[in-house]
Design goal:
globular; Ubiquitin-like (UB roll); homodimer; 2 domains; alpha+beta; about 400 residues; L-amino peptidase D-ALA esterase/amidase; 7-stranded mixed β-sheet
């Protein structure tokens, strides 16, 4: 089946086993377009970046790429000059195997920080993956970039534009369990619309804001995060004019939000997804800071895990967020149940709120009542399992 | 024995049971000087503040106070107008019982946010505590302000000044276990030196920076944090001149650091204290931001709990701290073992680092190599127990 990043026309994938996963499963994915494509990317904001991030940032400047080569099992981060050589070697190997210029290849890695790649095995694997390219390998590719994700993350959709139907697809990896150092997030998105690079960059930035940039498992940014999008025009439909671009951006954002929620749902030890919306903040950015402050507060996340409608912790987290706040105006609804009004508890609300918190996905709406800024953050809870997995040894 | 906050001359304490602790133990402490005293305080930076914080902030403006009344079991936070009335009622009751003006009384609360105080029981308890005042009740007072702390936190010291010996004492409460909402930190400090209020304020601010403001259990500031210091001059020794003030400040800081470390050691579920020192940052404030960023990083805290020398997470946390950083210059020593040089792992260091991490207290030294800024943060690890306790229900 043509699914995930292979759903749009002209995209295929191949995978290989290079021996970086103890399970012996595929740990290398090659994703390619059968024709030139526009490309855009967003990268981790961490100041310590893995070698593949440095390489792909340079590669993507030109706004064009036809292939993405990704390994899991080792992040190729903090590996010095050797790491950069290895990332370039992956690019060269993919370009050679696919018969395209090296400038058309992006590279990504995910896994343990600080361990060098078994580069000879990786290069050999790239050759095997290139030999196995097929449009039916979307799920294989999603599996190959998993580290300890409980499930593969892929999504596909289509959107009817004035010029015809366009397909969009994508794969992502989340924060898995057991091997704890894999909390890096990668996503590879594809579409068969024809989109100029500058437009594609704007689309990706906008669609990222409300999806991958709005999620949190543990508030830790990684050295390897990157989201790539390739648009190859195979549908023959061009993204012309603001209205078409808007429709396409909305479809991309919806697909990315789907993938982003899959990542949160699969957060290490996660048992619950919480959608935090702060409204009535002084500004939009302050709403975002407040929403992140609450969503990432360790005590709030523990209460959420326990299904405990502990609104006192939410207020304390809001107060610590560093945004403008009038505590006497704050209102909080947990799963639609009003629990705080005018900064104090709504008496008799505890039982209803506790019941609302039994759902797998819970909306918490916080109204600050001082402005028009709003923002949403999607986050997991914090469970003892998260700590267990992340306390276990790397070696 | 005259210990803790009753160690300096002229200070006494009394406690009472008001029924706010399920255990039936004392939950109210009255601490008083037998003569007028200078007073200073530092308060939570949270914008949501409990009623007693609002009241004590107003009271301490004058720079004089003779008594501190504290209850545990309920934070009297987010309790609206009733909460403020209750805090003032505690002040009035303590003043009446001790026969001093209400303007001379500070008030503090610690416990669950959002529950109103059983104020009649608290007022009655204040009367009983006043009847029981004695200079030998320092440990009783330290116990009465505990919530679920595993041990009482008290310290005392003396310092020889040119004018004679001065005593300093203090009690604090930490983040206890089991009842999880108690992550509020209070500290009451006393000394029998004679110190003008303005000098005392400066001393407290300075001594707080490297003690209570340098610790972290979970990175969550509370609605109730406050540290008070009273100086009653009962020793007959005045803090005159910069040299004497410096000696006294150093002694106060040492005592506060002792108490602060007790708080971290007793952090909920804590099994290890980690002293994070960042040096070579561009500025002092950046060093502090970097040290906090690493010390409070959830993945780093998990690794510390597991005794896992996972320096990759430390570098990723540094990179996310938002400070100036040249990854290729970073050096990290774990418990004295060099694990990172020039931003990459020191090969063969894992076994030694793992062994160093078995200690109860571990120093991690991070050198950024780009400036002269340095800072230290003392933090606990993150254990599954922390999450267990903080996931359990409030009701």
């Amino acid at each position: 089946m043509a699914v995930g990043a292979c759903y749009p026309k002209g995209f295929s994938a191949g995978v290989a086993v290079c021996g970086m996963k103890r399970s012996g499963k595929a740990d290398l994915a090659l994703l390619a377009s059968d024709r030139p494509a526009s490309a855009a990317g967003v990268f981790t904001t961490n100041r310590v970046v893995a070698a593949p991030v440095t390489v792909s940032r340079a590669q993507i400047q030109a706004g064009a790429a036809r292939a993405i080569v990704t390994n899991s099992g080792s992040a190729n981060a903090c590996t010095g000059a050797r790491g950069r050589d290895d990332a370039w070697a992956m690019v060269q190997a993919a370009a050679g195997a696919l018969g395209i210029p090296p400038s058309q290849v992006l590279v990504a890695s995910t896994g343990v920080i600080g361990q060098p790649l078994p580069i000879d095995d990786v290069v050999a694997g790239i050759g095997r993956a290139a030999d196995a390219m097929a449009g039916t390998h979307g799920r294989q590719a999603a599996n190959a970039i998993r580290t300890t994700d409980r499930f593969a993350k892929l999504a596909q959709t289509s959107v009817e534009l004035p010029g015809g139907r366009v397909r969009i697809g994508g794969i992502a990896k989340g924060a898995g369990m057991i091997r704890p150092d894999m909390a890096t997030t990668l996503a590879h998105l594809t579409m068969d619309a024809e989109v100029p690079p500058a437009t594609l960059r704007r689309m990706l930035r906008q669609a990222s804001a409300a999806s991958f940039n709005a999620i949190s498992v543990d508030g830790c940014t990684s050295t390897n995060d990157c989201v790539f999008v390739l648009a190859n025009g195979a549908s023959g439909v061009a993204a012309d004019g603001p209205r078409v671009v808007r429709l396409l951006t909305e479809a991309l954002e919806e697909l990315m939000l789907d993938l982003a929620k899959q990542v949160v749902r699969d957060g290490e030890g996660s048992t619950r997804v919480c959608v935090w919306t702060v409204s009535g903040a002084l500004t939009g950015p302050e709403a975002r800071v407040a929403a992140r402050g609450v969503a990432e507060n360790v005590l709030v996340k523990c209460a959420l895990h326990g299904g405990d409608p502990n609104w006192g912790r939410i207020l304390a987290a809001l107060g610590a967020a560093g945004v403008h706040l009038d505590p006497d105006r704050v209102a909080v609804d947990l799963g639609g149940v009003p629990v705080v009004r005018h900064g104090a508890g709504v008496s008799g609300s505890a039982a209803d709120a506790r019941s609302a918190l039994t759902a797998d996905e819970v909306a918490v709406d916080i109204a600050l009542g001082i402005g028009a800024g709003s923002a949403t953050v999607i986050a997991s809870d914090l469970s003892p399992d998260y700590v267990h997995f992340n306390s276990s040894s790397t070696s």
